[in-house]
User: Which sequence fits this backbone?
């Protein structure tokens, strides 16, 4: 009877160890794929920040033969409404 319990316990221990090892290996594969995705995302972020800096640089803006000048004081229009009253909405709903 002791031997049967010992054999069953040994088999259970072996399968438990194998299950733990296989789950650790699968977790390592998942971590590896997530690290690769993180590298790709960081590279894309770096490229997007570089593109943003390029698009918003003054050198690029002034290179299009555009000259920025201050507006004439007589051509300035001041609006004294609150912004909520200035916003108009459009829609397809017909009002009767």
Assistant:
């Amino acid at each position: 009877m002791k031997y049967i319990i010992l054999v069953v316990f040994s088999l259970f221990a072996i399968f438990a160890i194998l299950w733990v090892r296989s789950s650790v290996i699968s977790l390592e594969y998942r971590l590896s794929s997530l690290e690769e995705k993180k590298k790709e995302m960081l590279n894309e972020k770096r490229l997007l920040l570089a593109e943003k800096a390029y698009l918003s640089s003054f050198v690029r803006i002034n290179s299009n033969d555009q000259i920025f000048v201050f507006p004439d004081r007589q051509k300035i229009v001041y609006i004294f409404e609150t912004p909520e009253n200035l916003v108009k909405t459009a829609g397809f709903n017909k009002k009767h």
In short: The mean pLDDT is 82.
